[in-house]
Amino acid sequence: MAAMREMLGNSYLFGANAPFIEALYESWLRDPADVEPRWRDYFDELQRLDQGAADVSHFEVQERFARLARERRAGAPAVVAGRPQLGEKQFAVLQLITAYRILGGRHADIDPLKRREKPAIPELDPSFYGLAEADMETVYNTGTLAGPREMKLKDLLRFLKDTYSRTVGVEYMHITDMAQKRWVQERLESIRSTPSYDAEYRKHLLERLTAAETLEKYLHTRFVGQKRFSLEGGESLIPQLDHLLQAAGKAGVQELVIGMAHRGRINVLVNTMGKMPKDLFAEFEGRHGDDLLAGDVKYHQGFSSNIMTPGGPMHVTLAFNPSHLEIVNPVVEGSVRARQHRRRDFTGDQVLPVLIHGDAAFAGQGVNMETFEMAQTRGYGTGGTVHLVVNNQVGFTCSDLRDARSTLYCTDIAKMLEIPIFHVNGDDPEAVCLVTEIALDYRMKFHKDVVVDLVCYRRLGHNEQDEPMVTQPLMYKTIAKLPTTRQLYAGRLAKAGAMAESGGDEMVANIRKALDGGHHTNKTVLSSYKPPFEIDWSQYKSGKWNERDDTRLPLGTLKMLGERITFVPDTFKLHPAVQRIVDNRRLMAQGKLPLDWGMAEHLAFATLLDEGYSIRLSGQDSGRGTFFHRHAVLHDQNREKWDQGTYVPLQHVSDKQGDFVVIDSLLSEEAVMGFEFGYSTSAPNELVIWEGQFGDFANGAQVVIDQFIASGEAKWGRLCGLTLMLPHGYEGQGPEHSSARIERYLQLCADYNMQVCVPATPVQLYYLLRRQMVRPFRKPLILFTPKSLLRHKESASPLEEFATDRFKPVNEDWEAKDINPDNVKRVVFCSGKVYYDLRAERKASGLKDLPLARIAQLYPFPHDDFQAQIERYKKAAEIVWCQEEPRNQGAWHRIQHYLERHLLPHQKLIYAGRDSSASPAAGYKSLHDRQQKELVRLALSVGVVSRADGIK
Known about the structure:
- By secondary structure, the protein is of the alpha/beta class.
- The protein has 31 helices and 25 strands.
- α26 links the parallel β18 (about 755) and β19.
- The longest helix has 24 residues, at about 200-220.
- Residues about 1-20 and about 70-85 have low confidence and may be disordered.
- The chain starts with a helix and ends in a 13-residue tail after the last helix.
């Protein structure tokens, strides 16, 4: 009913109320007596106002399907009794319309190879509902169809096939939001899914197809055998992207960020992004600049350009991407979120993410599910993503699709978001552009993800050195006989009289001429436009490690900020345990108590916010803190609604402060960390932090750490200041709750690519966090944070130290003034929590002149500071490295040669720690305690521990 659709579209009934109203409406359709009188009168009035036929209950349609199927199996007649007022035939027609909306795509002509027969779907056959040939000339009401209200059955059948079963197949009936479902129906049915572009635009589409095909053939003959991961067979991606960019610009999008894997990337770089062909050819010839330490292969490269659109210039970025398929997706989402934040684009209307997937990777990579799950959350939403799937129907060299996935379509994972999925034949570029345009409009209207499945093929092998006939003989016999998409479309235009038969050849000649000259093949690229909101990264590229690392502030400023972040409104009732923490922090801010880790972190955040920096902290349970230590988000114990009653003190530091965002993330490591990496690469003035619930949990995001955080600068020149907070320390909690795998990060360190730090006091954490932003330097910071030290009485720092000190990579013994260097025979170096165990044992044993020094920065290794300690105790014969981790883990292997480099001739280096182990830590508390006690004792026993010893 039109009136019902209008009702569902108004502001009161839209959104969360719509399913409730629709359920009432369904009940009223079945039996008006089932609903309350006021609702019965309301629906009766809607029925009176509507000019069309009476609506049909979806529940009844579904029930009819089930009954028909049962009766057919039992051999019963096909026709069953329907509602008397509808008429049996009329009801059957409405069922047929619903069937095409749900299942019509299964019969769509979306495969250019036509390898499979259409499946038998009885529900798409009019006879399934008792409709015969004699009914074809009968006129029926079309119900909610977005077309003529009445049609002959034969015309209606053609209408439905045109809309749902030609070169476009669509899935949208799984969407429960009626407004969205009706919107898709209206867009498709009102035009029968049929494009209507004029002759000039059709020739433009052919020119874009020609550019795509000609580039591939040009590279294939000029650079024989070189890998490029050809787009041949999927050339419609280029006019599709062109159409998307132009339509997005017209819709008001000002920035667009693309993520894609290597298939077709070179083609996109040249024909969409506007990379100069001469620069691409130089890379094929092995020539490159010296601005990158390592560089990367051609089909991993990113690019940025400015494109002219009907809405004005649009800045377009193609993100850098490693060979780990789909991992770039959350990175793009994070980059988009940062750009939206910079523009204050809170609805996502100005910055659009576009992700281009492969069919097998889309179905197979778990990071897609994680990224989808973030799409509608408060902390990670970007207003919807346009997903384009380059579906070449073969996963790498998978020879049988029964081995590729368990779902019908590679896109079925997207149904979890209840979004429309458009399947389209890649050999019909006009249909490709039409559904892409509809997909964009859906995204811009509803701010949700949307998927376009470009069904095509792969004319060559996985790469240009691969022989696909080995595993796909049947498919490639078909491909060998198939004209290219450009040839088919050129013939189609010539036949329609849209251009001369020679027009296609002229386009090929023009594109080849441009390639020969190394010139642009995309006329929409702007060469001298400077986009607004552009970031100047040059200021961060020439800094030194210790440049401007004095981050001290006056004591008065610290007290003032401490007072503000411990203020809680009088009407806000805290939990008693949290109230005690806040009360103690208030005393810490006044200098009456030493600061613990939670307060030191808050004070660092407050000072940065007050200076105009923004802060973004995300991770599992980050608002409260895994170990009940942070409480950045306070909760009113008297709240009456689940989505009210929170207070964030760090959002009330000053009138002109930066933004403070703290997010309790979904239970994902890979996608969330990838998101935060992407965010940090577009937000150099924000302190971006990802926190592990336990440090080991970062294992689930190892691809992000290896391929982006550690190597992004060396490969692509991409700077970022992302901070990883990884709780670390051996407290007898078992393998997964002890070690954050320090060794893995140190193994990735080279070329001064990142910082690896293990602070042991709150004041050191404070200075590390401030230094990360205040220095004109942007490198990832791997920060190993404590667990038991969060409330350790000795691990606290007086407020005065926050105003008078700075971060120290090497910290001398706290009792250094009481130690006579001439009497020292052994010096113990360590990092983190074990220092307090060593100190307690030294005190209990009454040991004298045995200094304990802490190395707080493991990389870049502080050579000068370490050398100063060696010189201070130059008479010592034994230098000990003590760690809690097993010998084959922790920092030992990575820093051993650093330590040895500074030893004096008479000194020897000794290891004190657990023996090598396949597990990060013992699972038995008693075993842990024995090992911990023994390694501490041996570290302090002069002359006892040999270099080869370890603790079993």
